[in-house]
Specification:
Blueprint: H1 10-20, H2 22-34, H3 41-58, H4 61-68, H5 72-78, H6 87-96
Length: 122
């Protein structure tokens, strides 16, 4: 008789993969957040799912929602493929996995040779 291995859910698989490699999880999350401003709705939806997967892999959603100051349902909605999380929610998710938001230039910024000084009205 052939024995078949029981399958696991996609979420359970993602949780195991993400927990097994925290550095990969951080890389995965950073890239998703960096691409959230995509004009492609499908790419944005995938990035939101990445954020949701990483958050679920590393934290208790009830506590995360409490830390973000929202309900569990609002957190699920904010991190859904159609979600639009607030800055506070993103900071809570990132903090729960040991990361923080940072800013970096999209392109090289041109140096200003002289400071721009507005004349003061008399």
């Amino acid at each position: 008789m052939t024995q078949y291995k029981m399958s696991i859910s996609h979420q359970q698989f993602m949780t195991e993969v993400l927990r097994a490699d925290p550095e990969f999880s951080a890389f995965f999350l950073r890239n998703a957040i960096a691409s959230l401003d995509s004009d492609d709705p499908e790419e944005r939806a995938v990035n939101m799912m990445v954020i949701h997967h990483v958050a679920q892999a590393y934290c208790d959603f009830d506590k995360l929602a409490q830390d973000a100051g929202i309900s569990r349902e609002e957190l699920d909605s904010a991190l859904s493929p159609e979600g639009n999380p607030t800055l506070s929610t993103l900071q809570s998710v990132l903090g729960s996995v040991g990361l923080r938001l940072s800013a970096e230039p999209v392109q090289k910024l041109a140096a200003v040779s002289e400071p721009v000084v507005e004349p003061v009205p008399a």
